[in-house]
Write a structure and sequence with these properties.
493 residues; alpha+beta; five-stranded antiparallel beta sheet; four-stranded mixed beta sheet; 11 strands; 10% strand
Length: 493
Amino acid sequence: MQKGMHTQTEHCVRAVQAKDARFDGWFYTAVLTTGIYCRPSCPVVAPKPGNMVFHPSAAACQQAGFRACKRCRPDASPGSPEWNRRADLVARAMRLIADGVVDREGVPGLAARLGYSTRQVERQLLAELGAGPLALARAQRAQTARLLIETTPLPMAEIAFAAGFSSIRTFNDTVREVFALAPSDLRTRAPRSTPGHTPGVLGLRLPFRAPLNPDNLFGHLAATAVPGVEEWRDGAYRRTLRLPYGHGIVALTPKPDHIGCRLTLSDLRDLPVAISRCRRMLDLDADPVAVDEQLGADDLLAPLIAKAPGRRVPRTVDEAEFAVRAVLGQQVSTAAARTHAARLVTAHGEPVEDPEGGLTHLFPAPEALAAVDPQSLAMPRTRRTTLTTLVRQLADGSLHLGVESDWEEARARLLALPGFGPWTVDVIAMRALGDPDAFLPTDLGIRRAAAELGLPSTPAALTARAAAWRPWRAYAVQYLWATDSHPINFLPV
């Protein structure tokens, strides 16, 4: 798929006529005769080509006066893969908007985080997406409102506040305009809650583009889980979340056609951010068909992909946390890294209550770790220096790792830190920053897989061979790792 697909009318028409779900989130179909907009896979009879116009975002459809289809719910499509494969201004802005920055800090705050003027940000978003940051944030608020209306018994006033609306009137007007229904009508039409619904717990379905192989995704998260912060229980990966307004606990369960998500939040305003971070951690907005097509063109990778297609890159809900854990994992086993992290959590993490038991803390914030006496850290002196330098720079803001990070700039800053080599920097780029092309040619597991498959085994030669896998080398890493019998490659029993 290519940037700006909504401009390729013939391709869009064919996707709509085929009801091809792979294109959901890539573009939206607005129907001139009905005034509604749909996802490409909408089950209704496809409109005549002359009655279809195509937009790059739900917000652009809403700005043009179209309402969301009640059948296919286009506002709930998987996000565009573009925002997770690119590191330019528009992609970084979209990741920040999904993380709720416009609602919390306004457009000036968004622009400041990106290092551009407000006018530059608005102009580029409008040019590529047909909507500015306020309209994009408004579309997200509408989707959050719908989710709360349909899945909770909360009063409408609380929902309006939680979804980020400034007033009940704005909430009512937006819901009517976007969905052509009053909030109370949306609730009436929603399926009834199933028996046993737990008050305060939100049950959601997170969509993805098929295929999705959950083995390495959940296997990696479960095998490296830090006690007290993460656990695998009853077929679900559970963890605590540090969020802008409070904290949360999420349970994520792989299902054939979606990811089951149970969220408990201390402040409902954190709902859209929590969803965004969970989707990002599970790489749910990826385009597995495009990834596997390119990697499968390599004769030595093709059998791995044919055997288990749809591997995702397991990522994180907290970039700073992952960077700390990457340092703790340098040159030690997975079990030893978990032990080191668990000690930090017990000593310096923020306690939380888990209604189901098992989870006890938020992972320590950089500020808390920066205040730790280095002599109390049970690790070699050089790694102690690496860790304390990292957390100090994260705490004072001289190093920032987030969804808006420029990947190459972040790499350069990390490499300048003592004890940071290419492996540590690239594993952070791959799993924390989300660079789909990060590669680990010096990783022991990768070199073993390369030797087994007949790929070049030296880092330089393997990197040269992997040039054909770009920009998806991080996904190639997942397929290569999966040749091993390590627990990270298997769903826990």
